[in-house]
Amino acid sequence: MSDRHFAAIYDVLMEDVPYHKWVDYCKKYIPNNSEVLDVACGTGTFTILLYKAGFTVSGIDIAEDMLTIAEEKVRDKQLPIPLFHQDMRSLSGFSQLDAVTLFCDGLNYLMDETDVQITFTRIASALKSGGIFLFDVHSLSKIRNTFNEQLFGENREDISYLWFCNHGSQTDSVDHSFTFFVKNEDGSYERTDEEHSQRTFPIEEYVRWLQFVGFHNIEVSSNFGETSVIEADDRIFFKAEKK
Length: 243
Known about the structure:
Elements: H1 3-13, H2 19-29, E1 35-39, H3 45-52, E2 56-61, H4 64-77, E3 83-85, E4 97-102, H5 113-126, E5 127-138, H6 140-146, E6 151-155, E7 159-167, E8 173-183, E9 189-199, H7 203-212, E10 215-221, E11 235-242
Parallel strand pairs: 1-2, 1-4, 2-3, 4-5
Antiparallel strand pairs: 5-11, 6-7, 7-8, 8-9, 10-11
Helix pairs in contact: 1-4, 2-3
Protein name: Methyltransferase type 11
InterPro entries: Methyltransf_25, SAM-dependent_MTases_sf
Keywords: Methyltransferase, Transferase
């Protein structure tokens, strides 16, 4: 499946995602009117919600087709949200930011621990002293159990899909195989396929890497910052402050 096709149906597949909870989580730590960079902004849904919540926002993403859709949304709503085509591992052009966000498993697309460390270094460089970095990742439990040889799917009027999860070749990684059936105007269906890989690491590793590049006052939680982490949690949230 081409990136263009995936980007075009991404928002349909993410209709039930509770973006407002990520916004509320941000509002706990980031003062109103702060300058925020949304890393891995995708089609811009969350980025726009950050702007509407009272932040000055920019966004970056590595996927050009995702950014094209985000730019259309921003333009249609006439919002002052700059968007840039950048890889988080080579983030540049930003400095003295109040906060950086990286949500909805964006960091899990980095398959090598060195890439995670490089990304943390880049983000630290973009923040001012006291700046806040907020992100989330899949938990080890989710990678090892929820995504353990599982098949998911949904049948909609215009789009149906099958999603198979298989253990990846690297430790605590998963390979996602998607098959989409998208209805054409003539009533026929077009089949397209997409492959994604993700990986996560132990909480203590993320904390150690954050500390190494100059973050402190690190808080780890689950349930959008509302509860302490337990083994069965699916998603882990991190708040870190640059020294």
